[in-house]
């Protein structure tokens, strides 16, 4: 009886694997791991005309992408804003504070896709909702996709207005010192599990 039970279990697993492969779910599950060493999310702004770039040290991405099935592809990125670093310790501390990210009150910035479509040649238009500091804005992110060394690689840059998210309150609302335009750049590398 145990032998039949093992055969039945093996048959069930094989059947389940075949069903998952046929629906494309298996392919999506195989790419679930973010390779943190090869991935990055940065923000570039200008202070008195000089570019300043900061890096988010902690973030996670949940991407289910198939170029042949864009209608069912999705992407969600969650960024730990308290992990932001921009050069010296004093500036980094200030940016995490109430006037800027207010990381204690709003610990995460989140992008959730609503649709993924073909864009300009070699790019995809990823429409979605970006939430930073409690404010949600509809955005479209132009992103590239490629296979690289056994991994999926997604790259792009999203221009935003920092004042749309109340980033830089109080004396920092003056955009002549720190520009309103900010570029969020990302490189997300998904490795096989």
UniProtKB/TrEMBL annotation:
Q: Known InterPro entries for this protein?
A: Lipid/polyisoprenoid-bd_YceI, TTHA0802/YceI-like_sf
Keyword Transmembrane helix (UniProt)? no
Chain segments annotated as transmembrane: none
Q: Which UniProt keywords apply?
A: Signal
Signal peptide residues are 1-32
PANTHER family in the cross-refs: PROTEIN YCEI
Q: What is this protein called?
A: Lipid/polyisoprenoid-binding YceI-like domain-containing protein
